[in-house]
Amino acid sequence: MKLSLAMLSTLFILFTSGCVTVSEESKVTAAPMDAAETRIELGLAYMKREQYSRAKQDFEKALEFAPKYYRTHLSMAYYFEAVGQFEQASDAYQTALQVAPSNGEVYHNYGTFLCKRGKYDLAETMLVAATEQPNYYQIAESYENAGLCALKAERSNEARRFFEKSLEHDPYRPNATIQLAAIEVNAGDYSKARARLLKFHHRFGFQKPSLTVLRNLERKVGNVVMAEKYQALLDDLTNDS
C-alpha cells in the first residue's frame, strides 16, 4: 500500500528566523529581512485560505524587501505551484538554489516538487543533496520523501534503501516504517516486516495502514487466524471513525 507523497510530506519546512542586531549595520540588514518575513507569513495565511491573488501580492512584496533571501523565492515557488504555473515554480526554486546553494530546505522542497512533476532522477538527486547540507536537520524527512518518490517511479529497491536510511535517523518515523514493512512483505521478508509492525503498534497503537500491511502479511503466509484478527481490528477502527 502506498500513501500519497502530497499527504505525507510538507511542501515547506518553515523555520522561525531570528536576527541578533549588534550594530547599526546589522540593524539595516535585519530590517528588510523582518519585513520580508512578515509578508511571507501573511502570504502563507492567504494560501491556506486559497486567496491566491492576495498571497501573491504579499510574496512579491517580500521579494522586493529581500530579493536575495531564499524564503522569498520558496514562497513564490509555493504560489506558482498552487496555481499550476509549474515552469515559473521551477524557475523560483532554481533561483532559491542560486541565492542559497548550501541550504537543505531549498534542496528538499525542490526535490519534492520535482517528484510531483514526475522528474524522479533529479528529484532523488535534490532530496539526497538536502541531507548533505550543513545545519540541516530534517534528514529523516528528506530520505522518506526520496523513498516515496522511488515508489512512484516503481523502484522498490531504491525505496527500501531510502526508508532504511530515514529510520536510521528517526527510528519510529511512522510512514517510513509502514512503507518499509510493505516492501519487506512484497519481498518475502515476513519476519522482518512482522517484527517492525509489532514494534510500531507497541509504540503507537493500532493504525489502519499498519494493520492493513500486517493483515496482508498473515494472509500471504497462510495464517488465517491472525489475518482474521487483524481484519477485525481494522473493522473496529473503521466503525469508530
Automatic annotation (TrEMBL):
Keywords noted in UniProt: Repeat, Signal, TPR repeat
Start and stop residues of the TPR repeats: 36-69, 70-103, 140-173
Position of the signal peptide: 1-22
Record Pfam families: TPR_1, TPR_12, TPR_8
Highest taxon of source: Bacteria
Record organism: Vibrio chaetopteri
Name of protein: Type IV pilus biogenesis/stability protein PilW
